[in-house]
Amino acid sequence: MSAMLPSGASLYDRVQRVIPPIEWPTFLDDIEAILVLKRQRNAVVLAHNYQTPEIFHCVADIVGDSLALARKAMAVEAEVIVLAGVHFMAETAKLLNPEKTVLIPDLKAGCSLADSITAADVRLLRQRYPGVPVVTYVNTSVEVKAESDICCTSGNAKAVVESLGVSQVIMLPDEFLAQNIAAQTDVEIIAWKGHCEVHERFTPADIRQLREDHPGVTVLAHPECPPEVVAEADFSGSTAAMSDYVGSQKPPRVVLMTECSMSDNVAVEHPDVEFIRPCNLCPHMKRITLANIRSALEQNRHEVRIEPEIAGRARLAVERMLDV
């Protein structure tokens, strides 16, 4: 490690609990190049909680869940934003920063939820349920957002639904998130049948086995998990809420029922907590790497562009969410 640049050495100190020493040299060249490129291009990297630790803790300037990234993107002063996440997140960053260059390192970094519904589907729902407002999860394409009244995230969905002051809403596309929110509110929720390919795989049996294998473990579940999984858990919340729970409650042993890298990233902040890791990887999040973040900055690829008419309507739905 003696040959490391000082910045590299200090960064490894931060992630040494989750990145083995033998792996670190394979990351270092890209990390150092990205740090230089960010300065040269007046760029920032926004990284979702599901990014791997070498991205999340070593090159990202702003990190968080979808809601945090959306809010913080509005205050970015840099000329270039690299979104280390999936495509809908890059679109949201572009909506909120129309004059900035927004780059997504891999165009194939998609989302099963975003793929589960189209703008035409939303128009048909409006015909079937005239006058019922449409609340759309941010895990959707910009075209779907443009057909919606307001967006939400897993962290603010209940507040958004109740802010409308109506007795019935359409909530799409995540069926399980809609069902979990419906259990917390008197508002009737009409759901779509989209699912997250990561969270839908968790089962109540998984939790029972974890409790048997790891006595005393605290189970935290993302609200994209099926309702029966949420019912078995000790706490359910967005990735930000789960991270805050670990920080405030300090459970001796914890399991996060969500994407794999989340546990690694939270573990860096809480060395006194033991993390049990049932691993469901998001193949789309894992398309983002240090190498393609570097390429994005070097080659200005792949720039996110949105048609102005669609952007205007979609931006309104996102801004309404941010006002709640």
TrEMBL record:
Primary localization class, coarse: cytoplasm
Organism per entry: Allomesorhizobium camelthorni
Pfam families membership: NadA
GO cellular component: cytosol
Biological function: Catalyzes the condensation of iminoaspartate with dihydroxyacetone phosphate to form quinolinate.
Cofactor annotation: [4Fe-4S] cluster
UniProt-listed GO biological process terms: 'de novo' NAD+ biosynthetic process from L-aspartate
Name of this protein: Quinolinate synthase
This protein's encoding gene: nadA
